[in-house]
Amino acid sequence: METAFTDVSQPRKDDLESAVSVATTARLHFGFFDPSGRTARPFGSFGLSLDRPWTRLTLQHAREDAFSGPEAERAARYLRALAEAQGLDSAYRLDISEAIPSHAGLGSGTQLALAVGAAVAALEGLDLSPADIARTLGRGARSGIGIATFETGGAVLDSGPRDGALPQLVARVPFPSSWRTLLIFDPETKGLDGEDEIAAFEASPAYSEEARAALEARIVERALPALETGDFGVFCEEVGYLQARMGDYFAPRQGGVYTSPRVGAVLDALRAAGVTGLGQSSWGPTGFAFAQSETEAQRLLRIASDADAGAALQLLVAKGRNEGAEITHSRAGTTRRP
C-alpha cells in the first residue's frame, strides 16, 4: 500500500496553474465491538466504502486564500491547521464542488479532512500518509474505518486505538459488485457530533470483555468469509446482529434505537418485508439496507418509498466501492491512490 501522495513531477510553489483534485466517497459504519471504549481492546469497528455520495475538491496555489463550495468553512480550518503544522506559508484556492452530507453518519468530516490533506500533500510534495493527516487534524481517534476506506475502499475492519496510536487496518475484503445498498436520508435530523458525541460516549456504561469478543468473532468468523464467498444471507445476518447490539446500547443517548424515527419507520417496514441486513450508520440519521441485486434494490426502494408516506426522506441506491480516493494532478495528468 502506498503511504505517500507525492507525484513524480511536483509543481513549483509559485506555479498558479498547477492544481490537485481529490475525490473520495462516503462510508457506512456498522458498529463497534466495544462501544464503551473501556475494555482491554477498546472500540474496534466494521464498515464499508460506498460509491456515493462524494466529496470532490480542487486545490491550487493562489495570491490570497479563497475557499468556495459546500463545507468550505470546515475545509478552510483543516487546510490552515495542516499548513501550520507543516510550516507552510502559501496562499491557496480551494474549490469544493460536492460534499458528503455532514452529521449524517457517513464520515463526512474525516473524508473532507483527508481529502484536503491529500491535496496539500500532493501540491506541496509532502510525504504524508492518510494516518499522518488524520493525526494532525484530530480525526480517527476511535474508528479507523474512514481512514481505511480512503486508502483502500472495500469492507474494512479496524483494531481500535492501541497505546495512543490510531486504529490500524486489520482486514479488508472487496464488496461484491452485484450487491447494492439502499441509503435512507433524513435531511431534517442530525446525528451526534463534537461535544455531544464525546458526552454520549462518556455517559455510556462499560461493555464486557465477553460481549466484545463475541461481536468480533461473529464478524471475523462469519461476516468477512461471507463477503469472500458471496454468501449474502450470512453477511446480512451478522451486520443485522451487530446493528441490533449497537441500537440497544446507544438508544438512551440518541433518543431511541434510531436517531430518526422517520428512518426507523422505513427500516421497520423493510424488516417486515424480510430484510435482515439493515440498520443505521454510526450516529445516523442515515439508514441502510442491503440488496443482493439491482432488481432487489429497486424492490426495496419501492417499499421504502411507500413506508415514507410523505416524510420527505431521501432514498438512494449505492454500490460498494473497492478502490480508495482518487488524487489527480493537473500538470502531470495522473491519478494516484493513497
Automatic annotation (TrEMBL):
Keywords noted in UniProt: Amino-acid biosynthesis, ATP-binding, Kinase, Nucleotide-binding, Transferase
Pfam families: GHMP_kinases_C (PF08544), GHMP_kinases_N (PF00288)
Coiled coil: none
Domain spans labelled GHMP kinase C-terminal: 223-304
GO biological process, one term: amino acid biosynthetic process
InterPro entries on file: GHMP_kinase_C_dom (IPR013750), GHMP_kinase_C_sf (IPR036554), GHMP_kinase_N_dom (IPR006204), RFAP_synthase (IPR004422), Ribosomal_Su5_D2-typ_SF (IPR020568), Ribsml_uS5_D2-typ_fold_subgr (IPR014721)
Protein's UniProt keywords contain Protein biosynthesis: no
Residue ranges of domain GHMP kinase N-terminal in the record: 78-151
PANTHER family associated with the record: BETA-RIBOFURANOSYLPHENOL 5'-PHOSPHATE SYNTHASE (PTHR20861:SF6), HOMOSERINE/4-DIPHOSPHOCYTIDYL-2-C-METHYL-D-ERYTHRITOL KINASE (PTHR20861)
Taxonomic superkingdom: Bacteria
Any one GO MF annotation of this record: kinase activity
Organism name: Methyloceanibacter methanicus
Protein name as annotated: GHMP kinase
Amino-acid biosynthesis listed as a keyword: yes
